[in-house]
Amino acid sequence: VELFAELNYGAPTVDQLPLTRWKEMLYRATRYQDGNMLAYHSDPFGYMPLREAICNYLIRSRSVNCTPDRVAIFSGAQGALDLMGRLLIDNGDAVALENPGFPGARRSMLTHGAEIIPIPVDGQGMIVEHLESINQRVKLVYVTPSHHDPTGVVLSLPRRIALLDWAARTDSFIFEDDYDSEYRYGDKPMPSLQGLDEHDCTIYLSTFWKVLYPVVRIGFIVLPRRMVRLVGRAKALIERDFPLLEQKALADFIEEGHLERHIKRTRVFYAKRRAALVQAVTKQFGKRIYISPVTAGMHLLVRFGEEFEEEQVLTAARTAEVSLVSTSHHYVVNSRQREYLMGFAHLPEESIHETVQKFAANLGL
Ligand SMILES: Cc1ncc(COP(=O)(O)O)c(C=O)c1O
Questions:
Q1: Closest by Cα among 192, 183, 181, 179 to 66
Q2: Does residue 296 register a pLDDT over 60?
Q3: pLDDT at residue 1 above 50?
Q4: Where is 139: in which H helix or E strand?
Q5: Angle between helices 349-362 and 310-320 in degrees, nearest 10
Q6: What's the rounded Cα separation, in Å, for the pair 224 and 95?
Q7: What are phi and psi of 139, to 5 degrees?
Q8: Which residues does ligand 1 sit against, CB inside 6 Å?
Q9: Cα 208 to middle of ligand 1, angstroms
Q10: HSE-up (13 A, CA, CB side) for residue 185
Q11: What is the pLDDT of residues 307-354, one digit of tens each?
């Protein structure tokens, strides 16, 4: 149950999903009148019109350097991480990743026998200089440059350049996970790291989970050119195909501009919820709590003072129906005590104050 809660943490709120439009796309896909669809041949990288739609979207919105033949569809980011881990990591290979960082990536790399090298993070993202001081070969660096998981900070441009330079010099791969790049409320999302790569060493990964879960369950990678053939062969050993209707509906959804309109609309919606939660938490907790100023994603990163024990805080949140998880799973080393993620996607503005008040009252405030 705990793992499940952790996995579904930060999902979009169901009442904001574009269900009517999605139904329309699905209905159209079921009519099978489209000649392209009838002529469909199995392709382990997925339905070509969807790969074209994703490719165009990534060029437009994320400045990814992309062609449809380099796009491979998966049922989520996790499956893509797994396949790339299987292909790139041999037992004992060093893999560098952010500390704190996405536990799903770390656990996946560990299952392939990786030796994990944690790299610290500050207000400008992964401290890339640390890579220079590692005195063994690092085969792969996993990084979340557009929205660091869990702090939300953006990897600065000088560090992006330094990271790409390091990867080219050391002949390493970069795994860029662009998860949650869509939701930034103050500053504009920074273009992808992959778009700056001139050495064909970045594997770009993203998922529709943050935007469309559970309506759409699709993720994808954009491969370096030199890996396309190898990954194509490997993926064919795992799955030759997957559900065509969903792929066809999603291709139309993207091509007709519904995805970008949905993101634009929900960005405004979630920004309001975030602001309301910040206001409520500040009012109830004042100086007893630190709230990270990063305005992005669907959770606030908060730190409580020493007067509150972890179990006490988690129980108080649960009974007040505040979505709160500890960040301890995100750390390999030096985990921060009393640091939590507080979700706001599911908190209606009109009841946020009442909910947070209940949470504070449960803590005796
Ligand atoms: C950084 C990051 N990447 C990927 C994912 C998961 O993507 P998917 O559910 O499509 O496997 C998550 C989910 O929490 C995440 O935090």
A1: 192
A2: yes
A3: no
A4: strand 138-143
A5: 140
A6: 18
A7: -85, -30
A8: 76-78, 102, 104, 144, 149, 177, 179, 207, 209, 219
A9: 9
A10: 19
A11: 999 999 999 999 999 999 999 999 999 999 999 999 999 999 999 999
pLDDT of residue 189: 86
Q: From the alpha carbon of 9, which atom of ligand 1 is closest?
A: 14
Three-state secondary structure call for residue 272: helix
**What confidence score (pLDDT) does residue 36 get?**
63
- Give the per-residue pLDDT at 33: 65
How many other C-beta atoms lie within 10 A of the C-beta of residue 105? Answer: 25
Contact yes or no for 158/127 (Cβ under 8 A): no
| Contacts with 4 (C-beta within 8 Å, 6 or more apart), sequence order | none
Task: Give strand pairing partners of 74.
Answer: 219
Q: Enter the tokens of residue 335.
A: 């985990």
Map out the domains of the chain with their CATH numbers.
2-12+260-362 (3.90.1150.10), 31-259 (3.40.640.10)
Q: What spacing in Å lies between the alpha carbon of 49 and ligand 1's midpoint?
A: 24
Alpha-carbon gap, residue 193 to 332, rounded angstroms:
24
Per-residue pLDDT tens digits for 205-254: 999 999 999 999 999 999 999 999 999 999 999 988 888 899 999 999 99
Closest by Cα among 146, 78, 12, 103 to 326: 103
Q: Which residue lies with its CA nearest to atom 5 of ligand 1?
A: 77
Residue nearest to ligand 1 atom 14, measured at CA: 7
Distance, CA of 347 to CA of 154 (rounded, Å): 25
Under DSSP, is residue 98 helix (H, G, I), strand (E, B) or coil?
Answer: strand
- Residue 295 pLDDT greater than 70, yes or no: yes
Give phi and psi for 352, each to the nearest 5: -60, -45
